[in-house]
Amino acid sequence: MEHDESESTFDNTNKEGDDEDTLPTLPDPNDVKQRMLKIVTHLENSFRAIRGSEPTPELFEVIPVSAYDSTMPLSSLCQVVISTPTRVLLNCFDPSTAPAVRDAVRDSGKNLNPIMDENDK
User: What is the rounded average pLDDT of the residues 78-107?
Assistant: First the structure.
């Protein structure tokens, strides 16, 4: 997860000397809650990308595809259908984007082997 420059850091050093009677200042509870929610959201997104024993459509949601002179998520270009545990069908809304989708899936680093249907070439 990237470091956010706007995040405050917890500093428990005593700025007024070594007076042990003074308690260290605590971070703002709202700031802590916001930072923890950001971490949990990032963790949930990471879990979606894990490839388990059976594929899920979420595995393909975040694959970036270069189409229409921009980069967009695969889920905006095609429908993901899980037909068997070893076969996933990607039905492109626009057949002209099929080669770009194939290349993006192949190059996604998830060890997938896309094969285009003869009718889609």
Answer: 89
Q: What amino acid is encoded at 110 in this protein? A: K
CA quadruple 4, 49, 117, 91: dihedral, nearest 10: -70
Its pTM surpasses 0.85 = no
Cα–Cα distance, 114 to 98 (Å, whole number)? 11
**Which residue, chain included where needed, has tokens 């626009």?**
94
- Quickly list DSSP for 50-108: ---SS--THHHHT-EEEETTEEEEGGGTEEEEEEETTEEEEEESSGGGHHHHHHHHHTT
Does residue 79 sit in helix, strand or coil?
strand
